[in-house]
Design brief:
Layout: E1 7-9, E2 33-41, H1 42-51, E3 65-67, H2 71-75, E4 86-94, E5 98-100, E6 119-122, E7 137-140, E8 146-153, H3 157-170, E9 197-199, E10 206-208, E11 213-215
Helix pairs in contact: 1-3
Family: Belongs to the ARTD/PARP family.
Protein name: PARP catalytic domain-containing protein
Pfam family, one: PARP
Amino acid sequence: MSVQFSGWEVFDDGASFPGLELDSSQKPQSRGVYTMYHGTSITSARVIIANGFKQSSKGMLGMGVYVSRNIKKATAYPLRSNPTDRVVLQVHVRVGRVKRIDKDNHPMQQTWHSHGYDTAWVPPKVGLLAVRSGLEEDCVFDPKRVKVVGIAKASNVSIQKELQQLLIQSCGGGGEGAAEVCSLCKRKTQQGAPHIKQQCWECGKNICILMSKHFCPAKP
């Protein structure tokens, strides 16, 4: 049976399709896998790609790996460093059980992990004094839950290429760094199997059945 329609929009919780990019105000759902960003120095980026992340020993949310869904937030790190020494890594995060921290002096602000949570989440624009930018922030306790999948931003093309090559080598020439991506829905294909694509019956635009939304120009 074929169902015809001229538009849709859905919200994926990240559990079905790893690497989903949520809007910054959407709460990450437990057990989901999300695309986020981590700002660091060039030297640290090389170490992270080769050996994985390590916990920060301190921070607003305590120990863990600090990431954000907002690339603007990640671009500002490391703080007080020369912008030419900054790199933004694109990462996939298995958030596990998530605790929302949305006020100053929250009773679990630095103890959330001891209460059984894997990730602490600060929503955007909640007024925390420690987050003057008002941008979304996450802290993941276990570094193994955070995996580098790309180089989102570097100070110049040569550094970008160097780090990308290191990432490909760390994946053994394959893995997520070399995965094929559907040109329409922007999701990785499974084992190289192409996604089903067809034309919208009303506007004629090519669509993928896994696209999160399609607004048909021909629809009134």
